[in-house]
Each structure stands twice: as structure tokens, then as C-alpha cells.
Amino acid sequence: MAQPKRIYLAGPEVFFPAAEHQAIVAEKKRLLREYGFEGVDPLDTELAFSDGEAKPDRGHRIYQANRELMDGCDAMIANLTPFRGISADPGTVYEVGYMIGQGKPAFGFTLDSRHYRERAGATGLDELGHTIEDFGMRDNLMIEGGIRESGGQLFVAEQPGEHRFFSVELFFRCVQALAHA
User: Fold this and answer.
1) Please, which residues have CB within 8 angstroms of residue 65's CB and are 6 or more apart in sequence?
2) What angle do CA 152, 80, 89 make, to 5 degrees?
3) Which pLDDT belongs to residue 1?
4) Is the terminal CB of the chain with fewer CB neighbours within 10 Å at N or C?
5) Contact of 162 with 80, CB cutoff 8 Å
6) Helix (H) / strand (E) containing 10
7) Which residues pair with 156 in a beta bridge?
8) Are 16 and 83 in contact (CB under 8 A)?
9) Which residues pair with 155 in a beta bridge?
10) Residue 92's closest CA among 12, 7, 178?
11) Do residues 14 and 21 lie in contact, with contact meaning Cβ atoms separated by under 8 Å?
12) Which fold has domain 6-179?
């Protein structure tokens, strides 16, 4: 039996309460298994921290562990729903770039159907007089452009999901597209 392709699951879910995170990740992994994939969550590592370990050192060890997980994956599905602002979680965006930089396909989804410019105020300039991009994309052009160029696709919700940051239907569309890529 061939080993299933490993799919890195990026998104802000790592910041959710434990039970909520676990329920969403369990559903993602279940949907991936239906297509013969193995889902890999950033919290699948087992890191232990000592009381005396400095916070920046802890953060760097988490970064290294997540990078190792991504290195061992063949593709990714990223939750790019805006989180704590008008754009996707910055850590998730970094992970998308990291995977694309390795030549791995990235698929993503967002539950916010508004274009980036609309979320940024629907104007050409911000309050500081800086240009707001207007390319009719759901997020910054570099995020969407990278996903597209990787062979992946960004899926956009047409209606709210069962959770503010997750939709089984939208995630399933990513899995199906990945299976046919």
C-alpha cells in the first residue's frame, strides 16, 4: 500500500480553545482520509518546555517544529479567513509562502467573500495616504498569486459556514481539488 500524501493544515485554529481546535482538526483529518491523504496539524508535535526556558526560545522551537512538519508534507490546505485584522493570519501566510517556495501546491479557503480592497475600507488610499491594492482578489495579490502559481486554488465561501472560521463544505472542496491536482 502506498503511503498517503501528507497535507499540512495551516490556519488560525491553533489559537482556538483546545476542544474547538481538536474538533475542527479531527473533521479536517477525517475528510482528508476519505481521499487517502494524511492531515498534519501544527500541534501534532509534542514539545515540552521547562519553566526556565525564555519565551523567545520557546517560540523558536515551535517555529522549528512546524517547519519540520511542513518539510515532511507534500502539499497544504490553509485557512485564509481574515484573523485579527483584514487579512489572513500572518503565520499562516508565512507557511503558505514556505510551502510554495519548496515547490509544493497550496490550496486555501476563506469564509470572507469580500475583496481585500473592500475589507481595507473600499477606497484607494488609507488614512495615511498609502495606496490600497485593487486587483479584485480576496486577499493580498502575493498570497493569491502564489497559491495559483503553485497549482493550487483559493476557495471562497458563498455563505457563512457552521463556524466563523471553518466550513466543512469549503474545506472539502479544497480536498477534492487537491485529489484532482
Assistant:
1) 45, 47
2) 130
3) 47
4) N
5) no
6) strand 6-10
7) 110
8) no
9) 109
10) 12
11) yes
12) Rossmann fold (3.40.50)
- Grid cell for residue 121: 475600507
Backbone angles phi, psi at 175, to 5 degrees: -60, -45
The tally of CA atoms less than 13 A away on the side-chain side of residue 39 is 23
Per-residue pLDDT of the chain (181 residues; tens, 9 = 90+): 456 699 999 999 999 999 999 999 999 999 999 999 999 999 999 888 889 999 999 999 999 999 999 999 999 999 999 999 999 999 999 999 999 999 999 999 999 999 999 999 999 998 999 999 999 999 999 999 999 999 999 999 987 667 789 999 999 999 999 999 8
The continuous run of DSSP H or E covering 41 comes out as none
Q: What are phi and psi of 133, to 5 degrees?
A: -60, 150
Measured CA to CA, the distance from residue 27 to residue 154 in angstroms comes to: 20
Q: Which residue is listed with cell 482578489?
A: 137
The C-alpha atoms of residue 81 and residue 78 are separated, in whole angstroms, by 9
The count of C-alpha atoms lying within 13 angstroms of the C-alpha of 81, restricted to the half-sphere facing its C-beta, is 17
Residue keyed to cell 487579512: 87
What DSSP assignment string belongs to 75-127?
EEEEE-S--SSSS--HHHHHHHHHHHHTT--EEEEES--S-HHHHTTSSSB-T
